[in-house]
């Protein structure tokens, strides 16, 4: 360390000597190679209620916007009681000096109106405080009163996108398995909720076991595994009318681990015949099926790359459970996981650049990510049982199930940033597992 | 490791220009980097951007003078995010009184090109 420091100082000193006497021409050039990692401070005063009927929504919408932004871990809200300026009109000039004084880098102002028919309209603007200018243009969204939370998520999505340059994910939903009852007699049913755990609705009753729901690319359908007949069969459910039907993949066989292709036209799944489990694909329009693997081992948990060209899956063909990538039409598979332990439930990122997975090693479970060639493996979590990752629509956040130890242990949903930061629980009314994050609505 | 990174950064930043300008540059860089917050998972954290701007004698940035003169490869959104992050750092850290630079040498720091390069930082 000291030697490297000395070498560096010598190199710097040597570099300085020739230039110390040179006259400067042109601008002063500076390079900055260090910074700080901290959430960006922002302020969101309560939105202005423009009508009496809007009063019930104005504060609530601004609170949901703040919860969305702060929940990313990228932003820090400046408490409202620290605000100096008061925003009493949507069109009033922004008092930038007052917001600078409390170190707000971004300011979100908004207003809400509601009419007798129940139509709610929210308007908002985003301000770059230190530049003293608006960031993008003001926008408005409208819905009926029941959709006020979606309005808030849409506002937060716009703000997030303008501040980070990333595609957003707040106006999205998650389908999952809701769990009640003791561990040895747990009742499970499909449920759907907003990404933040609000607005939970149940899609199935608890009369039969359900597992592993997976959203279609447009969020209109859900694939899942049902034990209605006593052994696993894949079903397709339409979210709008909650109607479902069995995917006809053959009689007397177990089918499970389904997932849609990126265009929604195909389903890949596992099928067990005898003692062998392989991966198959079905064209939903024609019902035609195709066998994609044919190894005498267990191949399961297939997941398409976002361009539909490749499939990642888990297999124990090497003797331990590992991850492999093969062409979408089947063919030679390339092993991509080589670390210690067992790897499973791989899911391709919507950005296409990473694969999330569950890893079991030395008695602990982890959620991790790696590049699609298996490089740069990074474990994001560790616990008694973490499993089943699913990606946010923008590929920046992962949700998964965490089960606690013991007879009284329960399962809950958590989310974590792909850096491993900002691990937090997603609040649900009951136990929850097997999340599948849907698209931006 | 961070010490090495910081020294390397200062070495790079102070190489060109006369001695006084080197001192200003080092102080200036340290002042700005305290406000340079980037999200290490974003595309922007892979993009180096160079801003050009003018400075007033009182050490404040001339409003409206900040522009991006170059960027390493990246998407439009990523480059814009990197630019906004750098610009915010520059404007935020000047505070209300400006950067602590000697008025007598204003000619040396009147026009500045500042490169924000997160690559070394990310590797730590």
List keywords for this structure.
heterodimer, A: 441 residues, mainly beta, Rossmann fold, Neuraminidase, 2 domains, four-stranded antiparallel sheet, 4 helices, 32 strands, 13% helix, 42% strand, B: 124 residues, alpha+beta, Fusion Protein Consisting Of Minor Coat Protein, Glycine Rich Linker, Tola, And A His Tag, Chain: A, Domain 2, three-stranded antiparallel sheet, 5 helices, 3 strands, disordered N terminus
Can you walk through the features of this model?
The complex is a heterodimer of chains A (about 450) and B (about 120). Chain A is mainly β and about 450 residues long. Chain A folds into two domains: about 40-165, Rossmann fold; about 170-440, TolB, C-terminal domain (Neuraminidase). Chain A has helices at about 1-20, 55-70, 95-100, 150-165, and strands at about 30, 40-45, 50, 75, 105-115, 120-130, 135, 140-145, 170-180, 185-195, 200, 210-215, 220-225, 235-240, 245, 255-260, 265-275, 275-285, 290, 300-305, 310-315, 320-325, 335, 340-350, 355-360, 365-370, 380, 385-390, 395-405, 410-415, 425, 430-440. In chain A, strands 2, 3, 4, 5, 6, 7 and 8 form a seven-stranded mixed β-sheet that branches. Chain A has a four-stranded antiparallel β-sheet with strand order 11-10-9-32, with no helix packed on it. In chain A, α2 (about 55-70) packs across α4 (about 150-165). Chain A starts with a helix and ends with a strand. Helix content of chain B is about 45%, strand content about 15%. Chain B starts with a helix and ends with a helix. Chains A and B meet through α1 and β1 of A and α1, α2, α3, β3 and α5 of B. β1 of chain A pairs parallel with β3 (about 110-115) of chain B, so a sheet runs across the interface.
